[in-house]
Known about the structure:
- This protein is an alpha/beta fold and 381 residues long.
- It has two domains: 19-287, Alpha/Beta hydrolase fold, catalytic domain (Rossmann fold); 306-378, Immunoglobulin-like (Sandwich), CATH 2.60.40.3080.
- The chain contains eight helices and 19 strands.
- A ten-stranded mixed sheet has the order 1-2-4-3-7-8-9-12-11-10, sandwiched between helices.
- Strand 11 (234-240) and strand 12 form a beta hairpin.
Amino acid sequence: MISKYCFSALFVCLLGFVQAQTTVSGSFVHGGITRTYSFYVPASYTPGNPVPMVIGLHGLSSSGADFAENRDFRPIADTANFIMVHPDGSTMFGVRFWNYENILGSTVDDVGFLEALIDTIAASYSINSARIYCTGMSNGSFMAYLLACRSNRFAAIGTVTGSMSVDMYDECVPAQPIPVLHIHGTDDSTNPYEGTSTMKGIDETSLFWVDQNNCNPVPAVSSIPDINTSDNATATRYVYSGGINGHTVELFKINGGGHSWPGWPVSGSSGNTCMDFDATKEIWRFFSQYELNTLASQTNKKTVEVSFWPNPASKEITVQAADNYLITEISISDLQGRLIETKTGKNLQFIRLDYLKAGNYLLKISGDNFTVSKKLVIQNY
């Protein structure tokens, strides 16, 4: 029999544990708008010991509370000891959204709001400023990419079912290299895998960050075990390694997957949800590898604009680097990472392609301290 003393002590211990797991809600005015948020503090948090922070961005018409419930990072935060933040987007016509690109003329400053939110929480809690991460779904995924382009506060981002807009892609000049994880279904009808007139395709978006991080443009490719054969989806993982400061770019291509968060067939989803892995766990696994290196430098890597045409092509392409830089190596690989050809020379300008079958390929163009990766489409006319 448990004595009254033991029972009371047990009750106090349990009560202390519950109280230590805290969800804090708050608001402040930014840009003339009252912005709301909540964040989860795990039981393992100890004041004075800086911990990581993960910001989760909901999709269009959703909320921070919905993200907390249906992409739940809190059990991982309990064991990995990080603070999980769930901000709310602002509203337009009664719909919550993230303004990643002056949407419908909006002037809402969401980059500024999210940076101010970091500072607001850090004023009361011990945050490791080198380990702040952002993840998002759909509209929140677009916003995470904008943060990677414009903010220097994040050590890595992880995105699901979103992409970069065409304008964002064209204008993005990251303050520093940043590791990126992307998860996307090939049957996503909301944000199609191949892109649209206003959204970049997922392969091209991934290669943009491969180039920014100076990763090996030939990925290691592996299949995720198909442990759930009834979900009508499988997953292939692409890992681009060898980047600046050990950075990688990862892509989980969900074959047959819809507009959904793998492992979580819940609200906001459409089409097939891959149940072969848990996107929430994979995102934290990816984040946990990286710290923000404020000394990260690309001084040994030149930023050179390279163009080639035609694309799609059939027989040959012309390749040109801006500002009279010379191209000394061109390699072609398939999207499974298999090297097909490497051509070297003192000033390469043409490369024949008539031996290639129709399909998509990876073009790596290199010169004096620069490397650019491009997607090449071959059509047989």
